[in-house]
Amino acid sequence: MREHGRAKDLFDRVAREGEAAVEEFIQTRKSEELFLDFKRSSDNGSGQRLSQGDRNNLAKAISGFANSAGGIIVWGVDCSPDENGADVARMKVPIESPERFVSWLNGAVSGCTIPPHSGVMNTAIPVGDGAKGFVVTYVPESNRAPHQVVGKQQYYIRAGSDFVPTPHQVLAGLFGRRPQPYVYPMYTVAKIEIDAMHVKCGLGIALRNDGPGVAEDLFLTAMIRSFPGKTCSVAFDPPQLTHWDVIASYGRHVSVISKKYIRLPPDAQVQPLVVRATFAPPFEKAFRVVGQVGAASAPAFPFNLESSSEQVAAAYKESFERAAKGTLGEKERWELLPRFMGMERPEGHQWGTRRTDALDVRQGTPYPIDGETSSTARDSLG
Fold first, then answer.
1. Residue 95: beta bridge partners?
2. Mean pLDDT of 115-127
3. CB 156 within 8 Å of CB 64
4. Residue 375 — very low, low, confident or very high, per pLDDT cuts 50/70/90?
5. How far apart are CA 208 and CA 87, in angstroms?
6. Closest among 133, 137, 139, 144 to 123, alpha carbons compared
7. Does the pLDDT at position 4 exceed 60?
8. Fewer CB within 10 Å of terminal CB in the chain, N or C?
9. Does residue 365 lie in a domain region?
C-alpha cells in the first residue's frame, strides 16, 4: 500500500482538525475531487448495524480509491450540485455514535472487495459529548489492485469526483501490471547506556518490503539536520560494504544503495544503517535526522526523527534520576531511547518486549524482530 501522498495528508489533516475541518468544507463549499468524497449515511448511523446503502458506498469507495491513487470519505456531510454542476459540501448531517459507526465500518472492510484491502483506516470525529459526530475513512492506493466489489462483481476507479466502472483497457493493464515492491522504513531500538555524564543511544533504520513484488536497488539516505549541543554527537554506523555501496559527506550525510545481486522479497526487512547519538548537557537545539528509503520501481518513503531540546533534557534528567535511585532497569533503558531520538511510543506498547523491537512508521505500530539488539547489529545481510 502506498501510504503517503495527497490522500494520506488529507486524512491526517481531517483527523487532526476534527469538526473544524468539516466546518471549513461546508463554509467554502468544498467540491468532491479525485481524493475526497462526501457521504451522508443512509440512516445516520441510527440502526443496529451498518446499513446496506452505507456498505455499498464503502465497497465502491474501497474499490475505486484502491484501484486509483487513494482517497478519503468524510461520512456525515451532505453534498449536492452547485451552479456549475460540481458536487459540493452543503450541510452537516452528523452520525449517531461515531465510535460505533467506526466499528461497523472496520467489521465490513474485509468483506467489501476481492481481494480485501488491509490498509483501510477509519477514525471517529466526535462532537460535544461524543453522542454524534463524523467519521473519516482512508483508502490508500493498493499494490494488490485490481479490487473487485463483492456481489456486484464490478471493478471501479476514481475519475474526477465519481467512482466509475473500470474500462476494459485499464482493467487489462491492472491485471497485467507487474507486481511492484513497496519499501518503507522501520526503526529498531536498543536500550540506552549511560556513564558519568553521557547517555548513549543506538537506533537502526530498517527497510521493509510490504509490496507483492521483489525489491531491487534498495536505497537509504539520511542527513543530520540538528543535534542538541556541542557536548552531543550524532553519527552513522554504515553497513558492511560486501552488500552495499556507501557515500558519506561532511560527517552529516550518508547514502547507501544495495549491490545488484541483493533483492528483498515481500514481507522481508533488512537493516543497512544505525544512527548513534551521545547526549550530554547543555541542550540548546533539537535532535533531528531526516531521510528517505526506497527501491527501484517503488516510490521513495521519507522519515523524520526529531526531538526538541526540552524533550531531550527531560529524558536525560529522568535517566540519571533513575540511575541514582537504582530504578534504571532494562525495561526503562528500552523505554527511554525513543524519547531521546524522536520516536513516539505506540499507545499500550512497552519497548523491549523482545530482544529487538521495531516501529512500523506508517501507522506507529510495533513489529517484533528476533535476534540481537540494533546496537550490535550492523547489517542483517551479514
1. 133
2. 92
3. yes
4. very low
5. 40
6. 137
7. no
8. C
9. yes
- The C-alpha cell at 225 is 539536520
Q: How far is 338 from 83, CA to CA, in rounded Å?
A: 53
CATH number of the domain to which 158 belongs = 3.30.950.30
pTM of the model: 0.59
Residue 1 lies in a domain: no
Gap between the terminal Cα atoms of the chain: 29
DSSP 239: P
Q: Reduce the secondary structure of 179-190 to three states and give it as a string.
A: CCCCEEEEEEEC
- The answer on pLDDT for 312 being more than 70 is yes
Shared domain check, 230 and 192: yes
Q: How many domains does the chain have?
A: 2
Mean pLDDT for the stretch of residues 221-244: 90
Mean pLDDT calculated for residue range 103-111: 94
Rounded distance between C-alpha atoms, residue 382 and residue 375, angstroms: 15
Residue 204 lies in a domain: yes
Host domain of residue 286: 183-369
Say yes or no: 342 and 215 in one domain.
Answer: yes
* Residue range 161-173: mean pLDDT, rounded: 79
Does 377 reside within a domain? no
Which letter does DSSP use for residue 167 in this model? P
Classify the C-alpha dihedral 96-100-101-102 as positive or negative: positive
Question: ∠ at Cα 150 (145, 153), nearest 5°?
Answer: 80
